[in-house]
Amino acid sequence: MARLTLDHVTKRYGDVVAVDDLSLDITDGEFITLVGPSGCGKSTTIEIVAGLTDATEGSVHIGDRNVTTLPPKDRGVAMVFQNIALFPHMSVFKNVSFGLRLRDYETAEIERRVDRAMEIVQLGGMGDRKPEELSGGQRQRVAIARAIVRNPDVFLMDEPLANLDATLRTHMRTELQRLHKQLDTTVMYVTHDQAEAMTMSDRIAVINDGTIQQFAPPLTCYNEPRNLFVAGFIGSPGMNLFDGTATADGFNSAAVSVSFDHSSDIPHKITLGVRPEDAYLAGSNRAERLSAPSTAINAVVDVIEPMGDEMLVYLLCSDEAAADAESVQLLVSVPPETDVEVDESVQVVFDRSRVHLFETASGAAITHGLDTEITPDTDRP
Ligand code: ADP
Question: Which protein residue's CA is at the shortest distance from atom 1 of ligand 1?
Answer without folding.
Answer: 39
